[in-house]
User: Fold this.
Amino acid sequence: MVLTIDEVNDILDEVYNEFPEPLFEGLNGGVLLLEEEKPDPEAGPDVYVMGEYCWDEMGRYINIYYGSFAALAEQEDWTEDDWQRELRETLAHELTHHMESRAGTHALDDKDAEELAEFRREFGED
Assistant:
């Protein structure tokens, strides 16, 4: 089931409200639902970036890529529950990056790099 971007925005609003407000402190750009899909340039064209924590001249913000979710939903025949679960997991992951960034740590960045290296080994990308 591929939901419209408006339907996904409604689900994302619900998921957002499940998290305690203090987790969003310092996230001055908020959480943005962007229409595009974003293939992962490091993992290959069939692997998508679902979300991204950003800290740049515009501030701190989280991008959620609707097109990436829609592409996987179509491939994997997601239900609405799948959409909710994936959005919740992605937002939690990006909020963890945000909290670690504020604390000056990078354990999740290290874990993400390890998982990418493992993916490449498994699928012959390295």
The first strand starts at residue 31 and ends at 34. The CA atoms of residues 1 and 80 lie 7 Å apart.
